[in-house]
What we know:
The protein is an alpha/beta fold. The chain has 18 helices and 14 strands. It starts with a strand and ends in a 10-residue tail after the last helix.
Amino acid sequence: MRIxxxxxxxxxxxxxxxxxxxxxxxxxxxxxxxxxxxxxxxxGDEALFSFTKAFDKADVSASNVRVTEEExxxxxxxxxxxxxxxxxxxxxxxxEYHEKQRQYSWFDSKPDGTILxxxxxxxxxxxxxxxxxxxxxxxxxxxxxxxxxVAGVEEVVMxxxxxxxxxxxxxxxVAAKEAGADAIFKVGGAQAVGALAYGTESIPKVDKIVGPGxxxxxxxxxxxxxxxxxxxxxxxxxxxxxxDETADPRYVAADLLSQAEHDELASxxxxxxxxxxxxxxxxxxxxxxxxxxxxxxxxxxxxxxGYIFIAPDMEEAISAAxxxxxxxxxxxxxxxxxxxxxxxxxxxxxxxxxASEPLGDYLAGPNHVLPTNGTAKFFSPLSVDDFIKxxxxxxxxxxxxxxxxxxxxxxxxxxxxxxxxxxxxxxFEGEKEEH
Length: 435
C-alpha cells in the first residue's frame, strides 16, 4: 500500500479522489435507468418481466414472480443447520439493538386547555431491495427488514434478482422468512425499483424503498425519490483505521483488506502516528493479499483507493478522519475511548483491537447499512427512525385561543394573508374585545 505524509495537499487530493466513487458521477447510466423506469411505469408487469428476461436471463411471470411458501420450505431444507443458528443469533442481536431505538408518541397538556404533542406512526408498506443473482447476502436481508418490523411496518415487500433458473438463493429466502418479510418477489435492478415505486399488476406500490444495489439500483432509487421515500444512495464500501504504535499491524492490515475485497471501488485508509506501524501494515497487507482468493479485486481496490497516511500527531489524524467521514471507522490506539469522543463524522465506530469491522457486518447488532462517500457528515445508519413518520398534534380550547388570537391575526395580516387572519377572527365575532 502507498505510504504518504498527511498534510493539506495530500488530504485535499485524497478527498478529491474519493469523490470519484460517488454514484452521482455516473451520468452515462442515467438515460438507461430513466428508460427502464418509464417502461415499468407505463407497462407494468409486461416491462418488468421483459427486463428480467433480458438482464437476469430468468423466465418470470405473474404466476411465479412471488416466492411461494413451498419454495421457502425447500430453502430451509438446503440451508446448513449451523448457519441457520448463526442467522438466528444475528437476528436476535439486531432486533434487541433496534428495539432500543423505538420512539413513542407524546402529549403535553396545560391547564388552559392547550394540548401539544407528536404522534409517531409506522409506515404502512416498505420495499426492501436485496442484491442477488450470483451472490447471496442474508446479512443485508436482516439489517433492512428487522428495523422495519421493530418500527411496526405492516407490510415488508422484498425484491431480489433471481438466478438463471428463476430461483432465489436459499440463505436469502431463509433470512427473509426469519426476519419477517411479508412478500418476496423475484425481480432485481432498476426495474425492481420502478415496480416498488409505481406498483405493477403483481407488485404493490410501497411508501419507501431501502437496501443496497449496483449503480443502476442506486440511480433508480434517486430517480423515484418523491414518488416514494428512500433510505440513501449507497456508494462503494469504505474503511478508515486510526492507529498508533500500540496497534497490531496484522489486525490493521486484515481489517483494511476486509473492505478492499468488496469491489474495485472500495476504499481502505489507515491514518497513523507511527511510521513503523505504517511500514509493517503495508508489509502484512502484501502477505495477506497473496493468501486471499479475491486478491485481484483487493489489489485493484488498494491501487485505486488504498492509502496509508502518517499524521504528525493524533489530533491531525482525528481531524482527517472527521473530514473523510468514513462509512466504517476503527480506532486502534492506546486510549480508543478518548479518541472516540472527538469523532464527529463516521457511519459506525469500532473501538479497540477486537471490534473489527466484520463484527458489525454480521453479528453485533447495530445496522450495517451506513452512510458512504462522506455523507456521514449529515446522514445516520439505517434505523427504526427510517420506518416511522411523525405528525404534530395541536389542540386549543377557546380559552387558550382567546389569549393569543389577536397575536395570530396581527401576524397573518403582516404577511398579507387576510384569510388566515379571518380564520381566527371569526371565532370571536360579536365578543367584546378586552384590552
